[in-house]
Amino acid sequence: MTGLRTLALALAIAAACVGSVGATPLGQGGGAPFPLGRVEHVSSASSAVRLDAAPEQGASAGVAEAPVVGASGGALVINATFDSSITSDPNSAAIEAIINNAVSIFRSLFNDPITVSILFRYATTNPDGSPLPPGALAVSYSAVYAVPWNTYIDALKADAATANDATANASLSASALSTNVVPSSANGRAVGLNTPPAMFANGSVGAGGPYDGIVTLNSNQPFKFTRPPASGMYDGQRSTEHEMDEILGFGSYLNLGGSDLRPQDLFSWSAAGARNLMASGSRYLSIDSGNANIVGFNQDPSGDFGDWLSGSCPQANPYVQDAFSCTAQASDVTATSPEGINLDVIGYDLITATATTTSLPTTTTTSSTTTTTAPSGSTTTTQPPTTTTSSTTSTSTTTLQITTTTAATSTTTTITVDSSTTTTTLPCPDAGFDGLRCVLHRALHPVECGNATIPRRIQRRLAKASSLIDRGAFASSAKKSREFARKAAKTLKKAIVLTDAATTQGKLSGDCGSAMSGILLEAEQRAQELASAL
């Protein structure tokens, strides 16, 4: 394995033994503004079995037989490509089915107008042909970028869309904890950054790589591709979701060496008000400055430090992201699972229950902006440049069930949080694909819409426009970029027509529909101007 170390102007690799995660060099490539690299994650089978414990009858409760979630959900698009190691396998239909199920689960939970491309494999080797590590259930490769601290944190704060985000952003450090933050390519785009897919089918990274990551299920392991999983067999869908979490942005810097944090490390605590970024002592995921322990982080160096602490088998509360998986147990990512909450606060827009939202008039500010988030009572002050901003106040009530698990005990606490948040949104860049992408992202989050469900036909248009914008930003010539910008403008024009129709039909409120149409019109005009300028 290899590790990451920070140098003055770039990131380079130093050899280091780091357990089950590795990385390859982060180097400038393809016109992307941030250094590029690759991280590797290995999920492992658990060797710890509680011999005195009878099999848990409820371990797979609520997990249906090969559940197909379907196409409904948010604007997030995940393009699944099946490698020949899957399509040529006699069990290919079942393998593809559980992958499609996993894709549908993520799509049903998140509303980010981005397209994430993943290559799926079923093999005993890594994408480069080398053998998988002993004991591996599955392996994922993810493209990552080294983003300056302030750039990532500002983007993360601007992307806030849920009560979880408001609480989590209030817990962020007021000063930089590392020079850079290292998000996956998909995670960077989720918060509006210029981090395109960059991985090739052999696992190498560089300009033009079509994938955000690669998932390999170990074909030597006893996977079951229908549910419930049988005795002595691992749930294929759970392992698939685990590795997809990694490509979407999970992982800790502790596995990589160096000092640059991963997004997940921003929410690692040992006690109320006490961060822990060390591979010793207690570490747990918390979004409210360590007050609530959502789930423990794994501190076993033979596993991934970004995965969850997991007890002996059978586990009382099996989670998708457990560092060590047990046979005959299944689980999925949900809106209230540790995985769903973690993805939400690192930048993905969780589709949540309706909140009461009050919009204030647009204001012009030339001084500092103060954001106050209840219930923690902390205050964060930023100093934006003189600019026109939009200020809103949102009030919502959120009920979280937080389960703390050790090898022997499990405690569930229900917490009701009433939050009132004042948020100031900074303007998008004036021009270019970055500015266009930023405006498009905001089209799905007008304050006038609260958490209203955007009709699927509109979401599909916005997802298509997002894909065209990404392709235009990294096209090989100005001519191709211009063509993608033109296609994006046409797609956005159709989205405006659909939005107006949905408003007329009562599928969107008048305020929501009007706000969306206005933002989409700005996006369409930007796309047309960009095409003319190229």
Mean of residue pLDDT values: 78
Structural class: alpha+beta
- Uncertain segments are 1-21, 50-71, 354-426
- Give the radius of gyration: 22 Å
Summarize the structure.
The chain is an alpha+beta fold. It contains 11 helices and 23 strands. The protein has helices spanning 84-87, 92-109, 149-158, 163-170, 185-190, 236-248, 338-345, 432-443, 456-473, 478-504, 510-533, and strands at 2-6, 11-15, 21-27, 36-45, 77-82, 115-123, 136-145, 147-148, 180-181, 213-218, 223-224, 234-235, 268-271, 274-275, 284-285, 295-296, 324-325, 356-359, 363-365, 369-373, 378-382, 387-405, 410-425.
Structure report:
- By secondary structure, the protein is α+β, with helices and mostly antiparallel strands.
- It is built from eleven helices and 23 strands.
- It has helices at 84-87, 92-109, 149-158, 163-170, 185-190, 236-248, 338-345, 432-443, 456-473, 478-504, 510-533; strands at residues 2-6, 11-15, 21-27, 36-45, 77-82, 115-123, 136-145, 147-148, 180-181, 213-218, 223-224, 234-235, 268-271, 274-275, 284-285, 295-296, 324-325, 356-359, 363-365, 369-373, 378-382, 387-405, 410-425.
- The model is unreliable at 1-21, 50-71 and 354-426 (pLDDT under 50).
